[in-house]
């Protein structure tokens, strides 16, 4: 059932929110011991939210656009009074005294906030294997990773516990797990969704976005969470894009750019599905434009300097002084060192060291400065491409979901999982992963749609076509 | 003030941090109040909680621009950087500051004696929390425990960096004093050094002769008063000279001024200096004030101390050196409006200046709320001879304490009736008659006895006699 229909049923008492809540809890109970999508879940809180929503309906009120719709939340979004850990031991037990703006918007829209989902520690990783509280398993094949860093949110929707979840995407952390778990995932235009209350990994790249079972559902959740927020200085001072009005308008006349840099290096099966997706769009009236953009290949290296540099600063505050875990020591400096040594996992430490180095006196120009130049180059490259096409179509990931441990020993191989997703983050542009068939092992394949800033309405139109043609 | 040994000169630049007197903090809506109960003016933003984001206070931008304009700076488009280092009173373990493009670029400040000191920049940044170390050594290393008050965390600061144009300790003090007056006049800061709302660091180096290159400099911290600025700069220059004359070298380092000991000591050497890893603050957008906005701020800026000193000079005509000193300090303390108001009401300028620089200046913070018209009315009574100087001061005291009032009523309540005509003559004659030996010595030219007789007469009249009339009376009787 679509989110639209579910909310309509709750609104008209055809279905009670409390029943939705209980069904969701039952689905999670049945399978999440194995999948481990959730880090925190409180049945009583879920039921009391549902009861409030039903009470609103009973009193003749409208709980909102997501009336009674369960939504899972990535555990790097602050929710007042609810444990928020970023899957890190350093924040274990911490309960934020405030709600992230997206949490407030979901509550105001009548959603049931179901719980906090697993992730790679501080959103650093592509498999959720970096969670301090155990990896999440891919619901399609539990011997494989769900992707990351928003693996828990992707798996919760992929396992059909609930229709919607929120993730965050810094270099592909929504799109890559969406592709691996066979769900729709959107990284919105930077600044369309408030970051207030999103625990920062790399501030200039982070963006909150939806996971959904369908393109329509993703569109509704995106519209609910988007919009200007005075609490976030980087929030765009523009109306949130309206995607639902034009979502069924099709792709006739749409110029779809194809660049080898968003396809080359994939497995044959992934490549075949990207080609099939091109054909599906053409069959509905789109035209293909063959382009090339070798500069996009530089994105990965630039990203792995800029993101760790910002992270090294963003994560400095976890020093044991004010909140989270503290390891006592004779003096302040020793306490901070001991706390951070015990509290952070290897990948987080690796990136803090990388970023600290990239910003250090004498190295700044060669690393961080150079990476910023590449970032500018990528923005210019996209501008050149979008002068000739409306959207780009490529692969979301080089492969389908890989097995646990396959890349943990080789960080560079893991980083390479983000090769196709990173350029959109560097440019601040929207990009979307849409399920488009499976490989020989039955593992989902995602194709990626990219567009210029605020092109979400176009991306959703194209995504809707791909969704309907996915069986081709 | 001691001079430097022959041939030596000092080169000094000052870095002054001043808190802005905005209602709220730089990046959140918390109150910017000094002295509140610890950790009551705090929120997720100024506590640096995970997920919280800064939003720039536009009033702080306006105040920073006021300071820039008052210092003749280039006001420009600017951006924020992060200055990264670990310290427990800095909740994010980085400070949001400005780096390569400050809101205020080069400008200058003219000292009262006409010397011009260049301003390199005046940029916006956030303050840290305040740590109190308890037990043990009482410092961060070796104390038993440390308490942090985050009320100050995120309070807006402007850091004003002078060029190395200052050449003596007295000049350093004069610069700090003039800057303080300008900050107060701009309305952007209250300039209270004792509350830490204005804090001074001094970069000091020495060299043999003005044509030599600058020597290695030391940065002196913890200068909490104008007096300590002068003392510390003097001490540090002499320390460096003694070191060099003994064949040693000055090491670039940060030094701490110990006010009680009157000495500086090493805080950290260059090798121990932090690498702040500055990089652009990604959570904020550039600050781009329009030229209309800057013009509006400029038009709202009141007269600066130099202009106000010129006003007092013109009221006085040809001021004596003593009056120049008085008007300097009156303007420095922001009390010149009392002089101007009194003169406008008809009080002669020297009297207005003297009472302001003495009685009003001595009354502390309450003076800010005193009604200038009540002061003027008091001085008019004194000028008309309705109050003696002593009585006038007593009435002024009452006016200051009450913030105003009717001086005539105050005088009456105090029993300060005007003396009847001829009453003073009678008392003069009585006092002289009672002290014939002293009187004959006074008549023989022992001027020291003038004070003796004045005192006796004042006592006899309970202070109601006018000092000038007493002096005149003694004079005519002596020459008779």
Can you offer a commentary on this structure?
- The complex is a heterodimer of chains A (472) and B (480).
- In chain A, β2 (70-74), α4 and β3 form a beta-alpha-beta unit.
- Chain A has 472 residues and is an alpha/beta fold.
- The model of chain A has no long low-confidence stretch (mean pLDDT 97).
- Chain A is 39% helix and 12% strand.
- Chain A has a domain at 3-225: Amidase signature (AS) enzymes (Alpha-Beta Complex), CATH 3.90.1300.10.
- Chain A is built from 15 helices and eleven strands.
- Chain A has an eleven-stranded mixed beta sheet with strand order 1-3-2-4-6-5-10-11-9-7-8, sandwiched between helices.
- By secondary structure, chain B is of the alpha+beta class.
- Chain B has three domains: 8-299, no CATH class; 305-413; 423-479, Arc Repressor Mutant, subunit A.
- Helices cover 38% and strands 18% of the residues of chain B.
- Chain B is built from 15 helices and 13 strands.
- Chain B has helices at residues 58-70, 169-186, 226-245, 291-300, 305-316, 321-332, 336-344, 349-360, 372-383, 389-402, 407-413, 423-434, 436-443, 449-460, 467-479, and strands spanning 8-19, 81-84, 94-97, 107-110, 116-126, 130-134, 145-149, 156-162, 198-208, 218-223, 253-258, 263-269, 279-280.
- In chain B, the strands form three sheets. Chain B has an eight-stranded mixed beta sheet.
- In chain B, α3 links the parallel β10 and β11.
- In chain B, α5 (305-316) packs antiparallel against α6 (321-332).
- The two termini of chain B are 48 Å apart.
- The mean pLDDT of chain B is 92.
- Classes of the chains: A alpha/beta (472), B alpha+beta (480).
- Chains A and B meet through α9 and α10 of A and loops of B.
């Amino acid at each position: 059932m679509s989110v639209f229909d579910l909310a309509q049923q709750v609104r008209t008492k055809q279905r009670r929110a409390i029943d939705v809540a209980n069904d969701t809890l039952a689905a999670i109970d049945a399978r999440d011991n194995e999948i481990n999508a959730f880090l925190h879940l409180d049945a009583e809180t879920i039921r009391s939210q549902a009861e409030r929503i039903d009470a609103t309906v009973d009193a003749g009120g409208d709980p909102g656009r997501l009336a009674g719709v369960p939504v899972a939340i990535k555990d790097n979004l602050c929710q007042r009074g609810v444990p928020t850990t970023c899957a890190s031991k350093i924040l274990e037990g911490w309960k934020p005294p405030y709600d992230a703006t997206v949490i407030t918007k979901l509550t105001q829209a009548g959603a049931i906030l179901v719980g906090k989902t697993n992730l790679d520690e501080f959103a650093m990783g592509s498999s959720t294997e970096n969670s301090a509280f155990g990896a999440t398993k891919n619901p399609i094949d539990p011997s494989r990773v769900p992707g990351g860093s928003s693996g828990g949110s992707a798996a919760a929707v992929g396992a059909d516990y609930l229709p919607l979840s929120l993730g965050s995407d810094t270099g592909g952390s929504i799109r890559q797990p969406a592709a691996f778990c066979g769900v729709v995932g959107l990284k919105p235009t930077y600044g369309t969704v408030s970051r207030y209350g999103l625990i920062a990994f790399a501030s200039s790249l982070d963006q909150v976005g939806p996971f959904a079972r369908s393109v329509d559902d993703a569109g509704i959740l995106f519209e609910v969470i988007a919009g200007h927020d005075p609490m976030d200085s980087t929030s765009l001072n523009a109306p949130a894009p309206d995607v639902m009005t034009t979502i069924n308008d099709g792709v006739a006349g749409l110029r779809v750019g194809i660049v080898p840099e968003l396809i080359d290096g994939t497995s044959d099966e992934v490549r075949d599905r990207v080609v099939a997706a091109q054909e599906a769009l053409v069959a509905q009236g789109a035209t293909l434009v063959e382009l090339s953009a070798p500069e996009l290949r530089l994105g990965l290296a630039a990203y792995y300097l800029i993101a760790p540099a910002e992270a090294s600063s963003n994560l400095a505050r976890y020093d044991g002084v004010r909140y989270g875990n503290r390891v006592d020591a004779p003096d302040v400096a020793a306490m901070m060192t001991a706390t951070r040594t015990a509290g952070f996992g290897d990948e987080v430490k690796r990136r803090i060291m990388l970023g600290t180095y990239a910003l250090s006196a004498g190295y700044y120009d060669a690393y961080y400065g150079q990476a910023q130049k590449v970032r500018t180059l990528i923005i210019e490259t996209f501008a050149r491409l979008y002068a000739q096409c409306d959207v780009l179509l490529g692969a979301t990931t080089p492969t389908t979901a890989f097995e646990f441990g396959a890349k943990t020993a080789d960080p560079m191989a893991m980083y390479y999982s983000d090769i196709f997703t990173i350029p959109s983050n560097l440019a601040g542009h929207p990009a979307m992963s849409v399920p488009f068939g499976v490989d020989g092992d039955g593992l989902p394949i995602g194709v990626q749609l990219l567009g210029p800033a605020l092109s979400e309405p176009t991306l959703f139109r194209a995504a809707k076509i791909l969704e309907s043609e996915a069986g081709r | 003030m001691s001079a430097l040994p022959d041939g030596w000169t000092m080169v000094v630049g000052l870095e002054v941090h001043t808190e802005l007197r905005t209602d709220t903090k730089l990046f959140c809506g918390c109150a910017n109040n000094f002295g509140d109960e610890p950790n009551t003016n705090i929120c997720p933003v100024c506590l640096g909680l995970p997920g919280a984001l800064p939003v720039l206070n536009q009033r702080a931008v306006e105040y920073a621009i006021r300071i820039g304009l008052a210092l003749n700076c280039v006001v420009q488009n600017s951006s924020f950087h992060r200055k990264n280092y670990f310290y427990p009173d800095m909740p994010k373990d980085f400070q949001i500051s400005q780096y390569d493009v400050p809101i205020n670029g080069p400008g200058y400040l003219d000292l009262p004696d006409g010397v011009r000191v260049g301003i390199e920049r005046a940029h916006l940044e956030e303050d840290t929390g305040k740590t109190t170390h308890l037990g043990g050594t009482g410092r961060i290393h070796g104390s038993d425990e440390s308490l942090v008050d985050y009320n100050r965390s995120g309070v807006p600061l402007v850091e004003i960096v002078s060029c190395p144009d200052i050449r003596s300790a007295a000049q350093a003090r004069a610069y700090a004093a003039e800057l303080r007056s300008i900050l107060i006049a701009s309305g952007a800061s209250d300039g209270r050094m004792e509350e830490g709302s204005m804090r001074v660091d001094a970069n000091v180096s020495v060299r043999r002769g003005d044509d030599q290159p600058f020597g290695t400099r030391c940065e002196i911290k913890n200068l909490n008063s104008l007096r300590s600025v002068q003392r510390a700069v003097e001490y540090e220059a002499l320390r460096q000279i003694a070191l060099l004359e003994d064949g040693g070298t000055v090491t670039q380092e940060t030094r701490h001024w110990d006010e009680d000991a009157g000495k500086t000591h090493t805080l950290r050497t260059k090798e121990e200096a932090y690498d702040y890893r500055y990089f652009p603050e990604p959570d904020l957008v550039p600050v781009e004030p329009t030229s209309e906005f800057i013009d509006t701020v400029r038009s709202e800026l009141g007269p600066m101390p130099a202009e106000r000193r010129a006003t007092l000079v013109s009221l006085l005509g040809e001021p004596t050196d003593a009056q120049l000193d008085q008007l300097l300090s009156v303007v420095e303390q922001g009390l010149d409006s009392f002089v101007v108001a009194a003169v406008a009401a008809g009080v002669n300028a020297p009297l207005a200046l003297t009472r302001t620089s003495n009685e009003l200046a001595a009354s502390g913070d309450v003076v800010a709320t005193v009604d200038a018209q009540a002061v003027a009315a008091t001085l008019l009574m004194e000028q008309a001879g309705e109050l003696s100087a002593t009585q006038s001061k007593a009435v002024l005291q009452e006016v200051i304490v009450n913030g105003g009032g009717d001086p005539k009523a105050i005088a009456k309540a105090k029993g300060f009736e005007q003396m009847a005509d001829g009453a003073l003559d009678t008392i003069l004659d009585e006092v002289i008659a009672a002290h014939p030996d002293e009187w004959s010595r006074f008549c023989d030219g022992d001027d020291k006895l003038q004070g003796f007789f004045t005192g006796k007469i004042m006592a006899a009249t309970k202070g109601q006699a006018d000092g000038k009339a007493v002096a005149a009376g003694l004079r005519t009787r002596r020459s008779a």
